[in-house]
Amino acid sequence: MMRFYYLLVINIIALIASSIMLSSIFISRGLSATALMMLLIVVALSGHLLVLFKRQHQQSQQVILALANGDSTLGLARHHPMRQQFEQVKLQMQQARFDAEQQAQFLQALLIHIDLAVLVCDEQGHIIESNPAVSRLLGLKFTTDDGHLSQLGGIGNVLQKAQTNMRTTLQWQVGEQQDTLSIQLTIAQIQGQTRRIVSLQSIHDQLVHKEQQAYKRLTKVLTHEIANSITPLSSLAATCEGLLPDELCFDEQEDKEDLQLALTTLASRTQHLSDFIARFRQVSSLPKPTLKPHDLTESLESTLALHQQQAKEQGIKLTLKLECQQLVMIDSAQIEQVLINLVKNSIEALAIQSQQCESEEPEVTIILAKNSKQQLYVEVSDNGMGVAAHVVEMIFVPFFTTKQQGSGIGLSLSKQIMVSHGGDLIYLKRESGACFRCLFG
């Protein structure tokens, strides 16, 4: 920097001296060779002065551009008049950049550890950022190179076509399991570019829990109201039947028989209704499970042994496949009741089918394995006719049944037991036969 000042002072002094000499020669001698030489010297000194200023300007510009690009290795000379201000600006920019990096690292760590699935994409639908929760929830892996909303199928189309912020719920299929997602979309301008910020959360468990709670409240109310009416009605029917004397005379003997039949039927039906109410109460008064570490293999083998004789009599083959083995926290008594209900339903369905038509050897298969999310599950399937499409949505509704002598309690109670264990009971559509899967949380 000092060299620049020295050159600048020398150039200015030489330029002034040359200008004075040029003026004197021009006044005294007029236009001459000496005057032309001095004029060339003045022009050269002026050009050199301009070069010095331009070089200094370029140096300052390079230093500022380097600082703007994050390169702090370049700087102004020690004696530069702007050095103090430059160093202050450099420190402020370094601190701002450090704070931004810290903030970005904090947000990145936050995204990794939260369970809420978050996607950030551009206006064309290309995924810029996603956290691990997205892969866990959707069963898909996105990369910043080729990730796109189109990989989300119908959900991606909805998100890409949306013109404003929105909140909605949509269905998502993960393998054979269907999930309900709560989706929130925010469209924002970040650094002058449009970004779509998407958050996704599974609300399947919450919906199932609310459904079960609604069923419980309904059954409690209905049980109380119906039981209050049935108890005196049953008692009155039995009393009337007992008070009816044998010597009671009627104009027609058939009238007496009709009266006896009516009272008997009334007593019988009220008793059946009382039994139904007792089963009704099972749905609303399921005890809280007592969780203990248990090997599901024992429960499966016990269930198989319990139904072996019945299956043999019906000509049905029972098969147990163990693809994994581990301890799980369950109430073994409740889970065994679920398994018994499912195996019993399969055997009964195959028995009815074998009576109606001849087909391949009827078989019930029980599988213990893990799904793609490493969830333990027990699958009970058969090679029968399966469940009719119009019935699938109703099979877990309490008291809905397709059997003539069925109560409609088994599947709804089984589902409630699985939900209380932090899991679920789902029906899987297969090409043939019925398949129920018990998922453990």
Class from helix and strand fractions: alpha+beta
Shape: rod-shaped
Q: What is the level-2 CATH architecture name of the largest domain?
A: 2-Layer Sandwich
Q: Roughly how many Å is the radius of gyration? A: 43 Å
Description:
The protein is of the alpha+beta class and 441 residues long. The chain has 4 domains: 2-87; 114-202, Beta-Lactamase; 207-284; 292-439, Heat Shock Protein 90 (2-Layer Sandwich). The chain is 54% helix and 18% strand. The protein has helices at 2-29, 33-68, 83-113, 132-138, 154-161, 204-243, 253-284, 296-313, 332-356, 389-392, 410-420, and strands at 117-122, 127-130, 166-174, 177-190, 193-202, 292-295, 317-322, 327-330, 363-370, 376-382, 424-427, 435-439. It has a 5-stranded antiparallel beta sheet with strand order 2-1-5-4-3. The protein has a 5-stranded mixed beta sheet with strand order 7-9-10-12-11, covered by helices on one side. A hairpin with a 5-residue loop joins β9 (363-370) and β10 (376-382). α9 (332-356) packs antiparallel against α11 (410-420). The longest helix is centred in the middle third of the chain and has 40 residues, at 204-243. The radius of gyration is 43 Å and the shape is rod-shaped. The chain starts with a helix and ends with a strand. 18% of the residues are buried.
